[in-house]
Amino acid sequence: MKFGCRYRLRRGFTLLEILIVVVLLAVLAAAIIPHVGDAIGDAKQSTLLDNQRELNLAVQRYRSEHGGSLPPGMRRLIVRTDSSGAVDSAGPYGPYLLAVPVNPLNDSRNVVHVPTLASVDLSKYGGWVWDTSTGQIAGGLSPTATTSGPGVVELGEEAALTEGEADAVEETGN
């Protein structure tokens, strides 16, 4: 007489069990991945609006300190100026920004000067679009940093303080 188990002790999972788990994970991933993409897009849009607001506030502050006149270019917002708006390292005004912020939709700091934003298709521009008549700035919505619309381009690489200039600003507390 034999005593013992009729069934062998199983070790591990069967192929069917593994396939079921893989299919369940694939279904969960398919449900979650689109939401991650939406969250990234929402974060970029939020950053774009924050950077746009920061640029517009810098232009407004420049205007209020320079008798209502607009800066001739974004570089004027990141250097010190005198009351006439001329660049002066010992000037009492500015800098209003340490650098022109990056447009998160296309990773560009380029600023395109246009006569008016009302007639501009922002989807044709990368970087920033600056209305030279009102001083308003809008983010270009093109996914690339290229500019296919008309206007004068101010390169973003020049629109940032050098390391020495940034240190000087930090030391003076402005």
Topology:
Blueprint: H1 15-65, E1 111-114, E2 128-131, E3 137-139, E4 152-154, H2 163-172
Parallel strand pairs: 1-2
Antiparallel strand pairs: 1-4, 2-3
Identify low-pLDDT runs: 157-174
Quantity of strands, as a count: 4
User: What does the largest sheet look like?
Assistant: 4 strands, mixed
Structural class assignment: alpha+beta
Mean pLDDT comes to: 82
How many domains? Answer: 1
Cα-to-Cα separation, first versus last residue: 96 Å
Number of separate helices: 2
Write down the Rg. 28 Å
Note the beta-strand portion. 5-15%
Share in helix = 25-40%
Structural shape: elongated
Order of helices and strands: HEEEEH
Q: Order of strands across the widest beta sheet?
A: 3-2-1-4
What does this structure look like?
It contains 2 helices and 4 strands. It has one domain. A 4-stranded mixed β-sheet has the order 3-2-1-4, covered by helices on one side. Strand 2 and strand 3 form a beta hairpin. It is elongated. The longest helix has 51 residues. The relative contact order is 0.12. With 174 residues, it is α+β, with helices and mostly antiparallel strands.
